[in-house]
Hints:
Shape: elongated
Structural class: mainly alpha
Distance between the termini: 16 Å
Number of helices: 2
Amino acid sequence: xxxSIKPLRNMDHPVTxxxxxxxALQYVRKVSGxxxxxxxxxxxxxxxxxxxxxxxxxxxxxLKTVESQRSKAAV
Length: 75
């Protein structure tokens, strides 16, 4: 869907909050069509980022893998 969202699963380092936020931001930008929302839509935009980030944290915490870890450079 969005080529600038990088895979966060199975990395050789703990995923940072910044990486989760950036992925959520890119997703919301793509879906909403806004790079930066208008004032009237700013609250909804920011709420969506937080909700996507929370869902990302949950899925990363619950996914199981048998693959070897990837380095950040390989992504």
